[in-house]
Amino acid sequence: MILETKINNETPDDGADSPWESRGTTGGSVSRLVVPAVSSEKESEALEREAIEYFVSFVQMFGLQKSIGQIYGLLFVSVDSLAMDDIVVRLGISKGSASQGLTVLKGFGAVTSHAIPTDRREHFRADLNVSRIVSHFVENRLQPRLKNGEERLAVMLRLAQKEISSGGGVELEQRLIRIQALKKWQSRGAGLLPFILRWLKN
Question: Which of 64, 104, 114, 183 is the most exposed place for a label (fewest CB within 10 A)?
């Protein structure tokens, strides 16, 4: 936008609808176009939307529900702690989704609850240490599932080998090769976890 400046000997129209602001000078009056500033409220709403979308994408990488990312994103940028009713209204989600999401987040250590003397409702705030949250998820969700997968693969491998030893054909050998490849991938994934956890905790 180009800002125009008028210098004249008369005061420009300063009615309610005029976008011009005038000030006196030695040689007359100077008028400048007043550019409205973006309201801080709109900026705050935009920031809130971006934070929510960021954490929605983040939690979906781990196969978690969208509402979990929405709740954490909202609490992450909220200066004040929020009650569940406030979260429901701000995000437009059901009470069931909010309750379930808060339970999951509290289980991760991502959200803490506390009481406010003037309000009997339970209030929630985000734990801002994201690395601790991810570490908690890896240790309590991902590692147990990988361990379970490792046990199942061992059973699959044993059964496939037993089939072949009983006189299996080419198809059974191909099946065994696939299971062995999957077991190799599983072992690599499990081997990386300690390094990931060490990096997150540093």
Answer: 114
Adjacent-strand bridge partners of 166: none
Q: Is the pLDDT of residue 56 over 80?
A: yes
Tokens of 89: 């209204």
Contact 200, 134 (CB under 8 A): yes
Q: How far apart are CA 184 and CA 181, in angstroms?
A: 5
Say if residue 111's pLDDT is above 90. yes
φ and ψ of 33, to 5 deg: -75, 125
Query: Is residue 148 domain-shared with residue 89, that is, in the same domain?
Result: no
Q: How far is residue 134's CA from residue 114's CA, in Å, rounded to a whole number?
A: 23
Same domain, 121 and 78: yes
**Domain extent at residue 117:** 40-128
For the segment 192-200, the average pLDDT, to the nearest whole number, is 75
CATH number at residue 44: 1.10.10.10
pLDDT above 90: residue 158: no
Asked whether the beta carbons of 124 and 75 are under 8 A apart, the reply is yes
80 pLDDT above the threshold of 60: yes
Taking a C-beta distance cutoff of 8 angstroms, is the pair 145, 137 a contact?
A: no
Neighbour order of strands in the sheet with 111-116: 82-83, 119-126, 111-116
Total domains in the fold of the chain: 3
Q: 57: Cβ–Cβ under 8 A, 6 or more apart, which residues?
A: 69
pLDDT score at 85: 95
Which of 71, 96, 128 is a domain's end point? 128
